[in-house]
Amino acid sequence: MTDHSVQIKDLDLHFGAVKVLQNLNLDIHDGEFLVLLGSSGCGKSTLLNCIAGLLEPTDGQIFIKGQNVTWKEPSERGIGMVFQSYALYPQMTVEGNLSFGLKNARVPKDEIKRRVDRAAEILQIEPLLKRKPGALSGGQRQRVAIGRALVRDVDVFLFDEPLSNLDAKLRADLRVELKRLHHQLKNTMIYVTHDQVEAMTLANRIAIMKGGLIMQLDTPDVIYNRPVNKYVADFIGSPSMNFIEGTLERGTFRAGEFTMRMQGYDFAAGSAQDGPAIAGIRPEHIVTGELAANMPATMQVKAELVEPMGSDTLIWSRVNDEPFRIRMDGHLPVEEGEILNIGIDPARVSLFDTSTEERL
């Protein structure tokens, strides 16, 4: 018996000369909430469709619960899938939509009623069972679409950007409900999104994809604090990480007049050698005002643009003629054109090799 719910081995998918997935390997643990995250065209939905059986891989194998399902039909894989579009039958009631697949599979009536009632209770759509999709809001329709997967009583749920058609508040509400649903069911869930907030809040682990490859597979905390390369560092975080090009010499990073003695890097072991380097600094890790004076590394920047965001204020400035963003407390007054003293904790800075863009 394996503790892996889904295993992908050496998976390739080519459309003609275009390589969409390349020698991809992925082990998804039993009961895990794994998020496939990346920009459009990175291969995340393609990978999900291969797991679902909607696309045939060029090479490689897919295992679900230890069974090789590479060439099996979607209905034989023990999966439930929720798409971006609700794809509900408009002429049927919610109850009809939930039970339709079970009736086709000749599931006994008592069992259908039990599963529909359970799904409706979990998703809090019991009052909607007699309504038709046209009388439902977007959030209610998506709940019904999730319920339709839920009644199948499967081991693995696949979600393909299920919240992207909803407005911001509904998306946040349903995100919480999905997390609660996972805690309650403890099924394996594989979730595709381009929204990093969804990924960070929902996932046990995140697989960040680019060009059909997995760049990094780890917990949200590790991916945020220790990105393996500049691409991951830039992709995760809103606003994204600041990058300063400079040189590393005996453990000190220099960029123009700015110097910073690095911490947390084993220079003696040769993991970070002298030469050109890129320092990555998250906007929320920068301190301003009186606090800045006590930090190991300091500099002055000019506030070129001020964006009040309520609890935070986002400051746009420049360092060495490159954009540099600072996220500070929204209660602190800042004027455009003001010179700010800022401080940086080197222990929270990521260093990247200039040529390979890999983490040092």
TrEMBL record:
Q: Name the PROSITE patterns for this protein.
A: ABC_TRANSPORTER_1, ABC_TRANSPORTER_2
Output the Gene Ontology terms for molecular function: ABC-type transporter activity; ATP binding; ATP hydrolysis activity
Instruction: Give the record's GO biological process terms.
Output: carbohydrate transport
Query: Listed GO cellular component terms?
Result: ATP-binding cassette (ABC) transporter complex, substrate-binding subunit-containing
Which terms are listed as keywords in the entry? Answer: ATP-binding, Nucleotide-binding, Transport
Matching InterPro entries, A to Z? AAA+_ATPase, ABC_transporter-like_ATP-bd, ABC_transporter-like_CS, ABC_transpr_MalK-like, ABC_transpr_MalK/UgpC-like, Mo/tungstate-bd_C_term_dom, NA-bd_OB-fold, OB_MalK-like
Q: Which SMART domains match?
A: AAA
All copies of domain ABC transporter, residue ranges = 6-236
PANTHER family from the xrefs?
A: ABC TRANSPORTER ATP-BINDING PROTEIN, MALTODEXTRIN IMPORT ATP-BINDING PROTEIN MSMX
The family note in this entry says:
Belongs to the ABC transporter superfamily.
Q: What is this protein called?
A: ABC transporter ATP-binding protein
Organism per entry: Pseudoroseicyclus tamaricis
Q: What broad taxonomic lineage does this protein's source fall under?
A: Bacteria, Pseudomonadati, Pseudomonadota, Alphaproteobacteria, Rhodobacterales
